[in-house]
Amino acid sequence: MIHRATSIFLNKQAGLKRSKAQTGAITLIHRFGSAANLNIHLHCLVLDGVYRV
Questions:
Q1: Residue 34: pLDDT above 80?
Q2: How confident is the model at residue 43 (pLDDT cuts 50, 70, 90)?
Q3: Does pLDDT of 3 surpass 80?
Q4: Where is the Transposase IS801/IS1294 domain (predicted)?
Q5: CB-CB contact of 28 with 2 (8 Å)
Q6: Range of the domain at 23
Q7: In the chain, what are the helix, strand and coil shares in percent, each to the nearest 5?
Q8: Band of the pLDDT at 8, cuts 50, 70, 90?
Q9: In this structure, what are the phi and psi dihedrals at residue 19, rounded to the nearest 5 degrees?
Q10: 3-state SS class at 7
Q11: Separation between Cα atoms, residue 31 and residue 20, nearest integer Å
């Protein structure tokens, strides 16, 4: 869901149709905090643009 929303936003900003360009992202689920407590959250690495394919 996060990747789809980011991809749609970046394609609109670039003025391209979704089928003409792609972006990329990696999302990791982090389950524990530094004190070994349960703290579920996401870490996302998202490209800052789109690439024509």
A1: no
A2: very high
A3: yes
A4: 24-51
A5: no
A6: 2-52
A7: 30, 40, 30
A8: confident
A9: -75, -15
A10: helix
A11: 36
